[in-house]
């Protein structure tokens, strides 16, 4: 959401869910954001592959910008752009000219990849400066920022953590002036190409992202602890009428209610969590439906969510459940 928002492209968490869900292939959001959403999902799981060649970078770019390019911005070189491109300010003044021709772009990207894995310098500084180098090369007509931030996220996921990589774009979006000024400070001719201001600015932003991540995780830990304690109290109370698997389903749906997108949980996801077959899991879900603690919100595929009664039982904020759809 935030890496796109930096470029003025906005969409919602529900649209991301549509992009990720295979059963939503008819959704325009699935077609438009599927590849980008899957890239970041893979990044969050710590499975992203750091590129080793300019061709690998082109492959990542194709996924990042899938469905986003206008006809004027389609690549016309062997791998990258054949024409020249300028980065301009609001008044139309040129701030930076990307590398040109394509042969120079290839050499610049090879140097960028080498800097990304430089063993002689602090790895975090190498990751940051390779981000500057990539944006300086500017190998595409459009999508350089989104591709560059994803590449930076790949390195940060290895050097720090996947959650850090996922939260960085939010901080960059919130402090876009600092982020963009870090580039222009290096481009200032009196600076003579010293990358120190850029490295310091990005290190501060990464530090801020780490702090926000810690606060966010602490808040979620508090909510999860409250849900756990509430379920334990219910289990200890006589006459609750719930099976062990029933409690586990409520615990799962309670977490989805606290931290999910509001689109419910699929039957096969619940079955995997319970380590049971789908038909066996369905029997426990039916029991909870009869007690009006959960409800079906989609039939194809089967998705479930807590009802208002279920949320009240678990001490969660009361809200109306989603309307049943097919």
From TrEMBL:
Highest taxon in the source lineage: Bacteria
Span of domain Fido: 52-208
Pfam families with a match to the protein in the record: Fic
Cross-referenced InterPro entries: Fido (IPR003812), Fido-like_dom_sf (IPR036597), Fido_containing (IPR040198), WH-like_DNA-bd_sf (IPR036388), WH_DNA-bd_sf (IPR036390)
Name of the protein described by the UniProt record: Fic family protein
Organism: Corynebacterium lemuris
């Amino acid at each position: 959401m935030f890496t796109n928002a930096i470029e003025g492209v906005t969409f919602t968490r529900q649209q991301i869910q549509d992009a990720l869900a295979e059963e939503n292939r008819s959704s325009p959001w699935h077609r438009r954001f599927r590849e980008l959403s899957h890239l970041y999902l893979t990044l969050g799981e710590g499975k992203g592959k750091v590129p080793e060649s300019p061709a690998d970078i082109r492959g990542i770019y194709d996924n990042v910008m899938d469905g986003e390019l206008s006809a004027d911005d389609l690549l016309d070189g062997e791998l990258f752009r054949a024409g020249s491109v300028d980065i301009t300010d609001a008044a139309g003044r040129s701030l930076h000219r990307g590398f040109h021709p394509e042969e120079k772009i290839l050499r610049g990207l090879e140097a960028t990849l080498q800097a990304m894995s430089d063993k002689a310098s602090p790895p975090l500084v190498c990751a940051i400066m390779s981000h500057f180098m990539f944006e300086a090369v500017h190998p595409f007509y459009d999508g350089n920022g989104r591709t560059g931030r994803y590449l930076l996220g790949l390195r940060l996921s290895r050097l720090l953590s996947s959650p850090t990589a996922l939260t960085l774009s939010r901080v960059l979006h919130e402090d876009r002036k600092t982020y963009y000024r870090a580039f222009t400070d290096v481009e200032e001719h009196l600076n003579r190409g010293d990358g120190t201001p850029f490295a310091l600015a990005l290190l501060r932003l990464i530090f801020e992202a780490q702090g926000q991540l810690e606060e966010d995780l602490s808040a979620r830990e508090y909510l999860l602890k409250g849900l756990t304690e509430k379920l334990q109290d219910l289990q200890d109370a006589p006459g609750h009428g719930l099976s062990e698997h029933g409690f586990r389903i409520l615990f799962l749906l309670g977490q989805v209610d606290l931290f999910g997108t509001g689109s419910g949980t699929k039957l096969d996801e619940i079955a995997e969590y319970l380590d049971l077959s789908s038909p066996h899991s369905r029997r426990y879900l039916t029991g909870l439906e009869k007690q009006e603690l959960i409800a079906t919100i989609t039939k194809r595929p089967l998705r479930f969510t807590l009802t208002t009664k279920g949320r009240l039982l678990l001490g969660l904020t009361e809200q109306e459940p989603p309307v049943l759809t097919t």
